[in-house]
Amino acid sequence: MRPIISIKDLSKTYKGGFTALKDINLEIEQGEIFGLLGPNGAGKTTLISIICGIVNPGQGSVTVDGFDIIRDYRETRSRIGLVPQELTTDTFETVWHTVSYTRGLFGKPASPGHIEKVLKALSLWDKKDSTIMTLSGGMKRRVLIAKALSHEPEILFLDEPTAGVDVELRQDMWNIVRELRSSGVTIILTTHYIEEAEQMADRIGVINNGEIIVVEEKKELMRKLGIKRLTLDLQTSLKKIPAALKKHKLDLSDDGKHLVYTYDTMAERTGITALLNDLGKSGIKFKDIHTKQSSLEEIFVTLVKRSS
Amino acid sequence: MNWRAILAIYKFEMARTGRTLGQSIVSPVISTVLYFVVFGSAIGSRITEIDGVSYGSFIVPGLIMLSILTQSIANASFGIYFPRFVGTIFEVLSAPVSFLEIVIGYVGAAATKSMLVGSIILATAGFFVPLQIAHPFWMALFLVLTAVTFSLFGFIIGIWADNFEKLQIIPLLVITPLVFLGGSFYSISMLPPFWQTVSLFNPVVYLISGFRWSFYEIADVSLAVSLGMITFFLAACLTLVWWIFRTGYQLKS
Ligand SMILES: Nc1ncnc2c1ncn2[C@@H]1O[C@H](COP(=O)(O)OP(=O)(O)OP(=O)(O)O)[C@@H](O)[C@H]1O
Ligand SMILES: [Mg+2]
Fold first, then answer.
1. Mind giving me the DSSP string for B172-223?
2. Residue A118 belongs to a domain
3. What is the tens place of the pLDDT at every residue in A14-58?
4. Which of A33, A184, B65, B91 is the most buried (most CB within 10 A)?
5. A164 and A272, same structural domain?
6. Among chain A residues, CA nearest to B97
7. What total of structural domains would you count in chain A?
């Protein structure tokens, strides 16, 4: 796969002197869904805004499909659709006009058919003649998505697209994202709902304090950084962990009915066999046993804590 | 050139005018009619003629200039300030459009609208006083040049302003006095010599003089000087706008 977006040594210091991005190096591959995660103020929106031409880059360079975002801005920008984080829509325009306007702005010939398709996919068709100010917040979000899709971009940025959005729209949106992806559109999304990134993304980048901490295939990331928990449901509850089991990393639940063993999936030995042996020797019997892998959310929290 | 983008911006802005037809067109017409009635009849009864033209007819070009100037500035400054204020400007910045295209779209729409208002005022004036346009081509040229120049100027104000007060202050503090002192309602030659000299520093004098010449062939300054001045303003505004987009001043952080 070739990178469709290539970011080299990108830094950004805002006028007030605050450095929002430090030496970012990142490649986004064609056709993937890339999840950009990071706590508030990490620099996600700044990064996206630079690529889209809304914020001036500081040092470094960004190319989109081989074109430089400054020198060949027409080439790069015409490929990109952006759904911004803030709900910034026109007020007095109708849905139809505002979406058609975006298409014109991006230099595409009018195509009522395409706009109709987009509005229908976003359940906005019956609102097409309503003025935007009469719409609810979630519907305005849909309008922003429709605007971004109006000019048939090859790359779609979704900056917190699901903030303040109900379940139904989220479903609609993920269906659209999947459909776009299968038609070859590259999608970069930021979200605070990490389970969404876990569900949707092919690769994950984590950014904190303006620095990329990790970029990894989602599955790989979860395998590498994931820890597993083995829970034993005991037949008789324990008061404390027996001395013979001290050498294992065990936790006893408050009610004394469960023993929890945490282990690293990447380690050569998980230590499960030894643990089970020792349990047998100590005469501890259990009814059931189950394991659970840590979620992306837990991984994310660990990573961010570690980096700051 | 991304003509489609220019057209999109232009149509978008004109649609805004269409929605606010009342305040965009009707109110300047009403206020001009009021000027006309008040100045024309109150002063016109004392000054009957200036340079062989009846006072009522004499003030028509000045009145049109007055509204072209204020309308151009108001339309263009609001046109670009509003998307900055609500944040929708992001879309224009992220679109594959050059600064020139953005300017043509916004300024073209603002200038069109003020020329429309100017033409309506001209037609309205025709009901009150006899009008004569000696040089229609020159009249149209002055109209277009002034509308474009001051729309550009308004565009600059709309980018410079970071609150609504600033948006109002330049038109109120600078433009209106300059227009009133620029010979809209009198001929510069009627002033004492000292004030005549001072007037020559007022750029609006040159606009009104040239415009009035195209009607009645009477002028305070020569046509060439008038044209030279307006071209100079146009160039100055273009340079400023060019600099704004090069640096991203007030548009990009
Ligand atoms: N125009 C600006 N001028 C100065 N500082 C800014 C500007 N825009 C953003 N910042 C700062 O840059 C940092 C990164 O902001 P950014 O909006 O990129 O974060 P983010 O990762 O998108 O956060 P969130 O998850 O809250 O949206 C923040 O500390 C913010 O205060
Ligand atoms: Mg953000």
1. IIIIHHHHHTTTSSS-GGGS-HHHHHHHTT-HHHHHHHHHHHHHHS--SS-H
2. yes
3. 988 999 999 999 999 999 999 998 888 899 999 999 999 999 999
4. B65
5. no
6. A74
7. 2
